[in-house]
Amino acid sequence: MMTKWQSARLNRLGSAIFSEAAQWKQEALSRGLKLIDLGIGSPDGSPTAAVMQALQEGVGKSKHYGYPSSEGSLEFRSTVAQWYDHRFGVKLDPHKEVTALMGSQDGLAHLAMAVCNPGDRAIVPDPGYPIYGASLVLAGVEAYPVPLLAENGFLPDLDSIPQEVLDSSTFMLLNYPNNPVSAVADLSFFEKLVYLGFRHNLLLVHDIAYSELAFDDFCPPSILQVPGAKDIAVEFHSLSKSFNMAGCRIAFMVGNENVVAALKTLKSNIDYGVFGAVQEAGIAAMQEDIRDGIGKRNALVYQNRRDLVIDGLREWRWVVPRPKATMFLWASVPDERTSREFCRELAVNTGVIVIPGDAFGSYGEGYVRIALVQEEDMLKEAVDRMGRFIQRK
Ligand SMILES: *Cc1c(COP(=O)(O)O)cnc(C)c1O
Fold first, then answer.
1. Could you give the C-alpha distances from 193 to 16, 111, 202, 216, 223, in angstroms and in order?
2. pLDDT tens digits for 12-57?
3. Rounded to the nearest 10 degrees, what angle do helices 294-315 and 376-392 cross at?
4. Does ligand 1 come within 6 angstroms of the Cβ of 289?
5. Distance CA 105, CA 91 (A)
6. What is the C-alpha separation between 130 and 183, in angstroms, rounded?
7. How does pLDDT run across 50-105, given as a tens digit for each residue?
8. pLDDT-based confidence at 383, cuts 50/70/90?
9. Residue nearest to atom 15 of ligand 1 (CA)
10. Three-class SS state of 1
11. Share of residues in the chain with pLDDT > 70 (%)
């Protein structure tokens, strides 16, 4: 027998939806279809010229060719603090309350290892972004999933979580604006959470990757706007979606200084930080956002796409809620098929790739996630193909 050299935990890292979708793509291509990929949530836009210029200039500086530090340069952390103050009115100490990350994926993947012991418990949303569950598997932490249901506006029903679970869990993970369900939370929800966190000594971990991709007049709040929240909460922010920098791998975590210190300690054993030129590009993006609101401008692109797809699908009698934020639509499957059947058949019959909701957790069944990551004429074409497909059935 051949040894495979694969640990058992690899099998527990969650759904392999993106490799399954790759097979659907192959099948569609072999049938001569042209693909329109609305699957993976990777922004299709570019950073601004100033951001790319900062990166180019950074590459030419010889000081960046030694090891950086995993917490990020003081200049980067200070700019994060300025941006948080500008955007949320939250004051942060760049020495103690901010750390750089190689993408928020890096931080989310390692947080449980930094703050939990094997056998501990953490509360995570279902459906949820896949790394939340995977990071618990890596750390040997047990997940307590809380369903996000349409009838509750896709917020967790805090009263439904048993007291014993709240008392025995190390942290609770939240993500608003949310991927995949594209729901938003207001400050009063965060106030309730912070109260709950204090009562149960529960760390609140908020992933705010979509804070800048908000529409109409909605302005997503930070959990750290709640007075006292720093005693009990941390927040992950990413430059990937806000400023179209996903390929740069730059993000940060802010908030409770003990948790920041724990993650810094773990990461300083694992990596030596983000390339200095990339940090300078991140600084340029935050500064330009403070000056010119580039995040808001980027959001308008997605807002127009949102309206185009929702209005288009409505003409085919597929009614999809209009989200206040994110680059995703969370749509009920318009017929009797399961999420997976619907997505597979849509893919192989039309070439349009969307992701079945159950890939994000069992409470995602019955939904599909449509990522608005193509230009408008491609999205029009996708609406047309999807419309014909659901009519045919
Ligand atoms: C894209 C995404 C991230 C990861 O972003 P990076 O900073 O690029 O690693 C984190 N959380 C959610 C919910 C996301 O959608």
1. 32, 20, 10, 26, 9
2. 887 678 889 999 999 999 999 999 999 988 999 999 999 999 999 9
3. 30
4. no
5. 24
6. 17
7. 999 999 999 999 999 999 999 999 999 999 999 999 999 999 999 999 999 999 99
8. very high
9. 179
10. coil
11. 99
Q: Comparing C-alpha atoms, which of 330, 338, 332, 302 is closest to residue 317?
A: 332
> Which amino acid is residue 167, in one-letter code?
D
Sequence-distant (6+) residues with CB within 8 A of 261 are 96
Q: Which of 275, 290, 228 is nearest to 55 (CA)?
A: 275
- C-alpha dist (Å) from residue 158 to 155, 203, 226, 336, 364: 9, 15, 17, 31, 19
**Separation of 23 CA from ligand 1 center, angstroms?**
24
Best of 173, 182, 184, 207 for a ligand 1 pocket test (most atoms within 8 Å of beta carbon): 207
- The residue type of 322 is R
Q: Is 365 helix (H, G, I), strand (E, B) or coil?
A: coil
Q: Are strands 355-356 and 169-174 parallel, antiparallel or unpaired?
A: unpaired
Torsion of CA 383, 386, 388, 393, to 10 degrees: -160
Distance CA 307, CA 325 (A): 12
Phi-psi region of 293 (alpha: psi -120 to 50; beta: other; left: phi over 0): left
Ligand 1 pocket test: pick from 131, 132, 181, 240 the residue with the most ligand atoms within 8 Å of its Cβ: 240
* 238 Cβ inside 6 Å of ligand 1: yes
- DSSP for 55-113, please give it: HHHHHT-GGGGS---TT--HHHHHHHHHHHHHHH-----TTTSEEEESSHHHHHHHHHH
CA distances from 295 to 213, 244, 292, 324 (A): 7, 9, 9, 15
- Ligand 1 pocket test target in 99, 102, 105 with most atoms within 8 Å of CB: 105
Tell me, using a 6 A CB cutoff, whether residue 182 lines ligand 1: no
104 CA from centroid of ligand 1 (Å): 6
Strand spans (E) along the chain:
36-37, 98-101, 121-126, 142-147, 169-174, 203-207, 233-238, 251-255, 328-332, 352-353, 355-356, 367-371
In our burial notation (b when 16+ CB lie closer than 10 A, e otherwise), range 340-349 reads bebbbebbbb
Pairing state between β 169-174 and 203-207: parallel
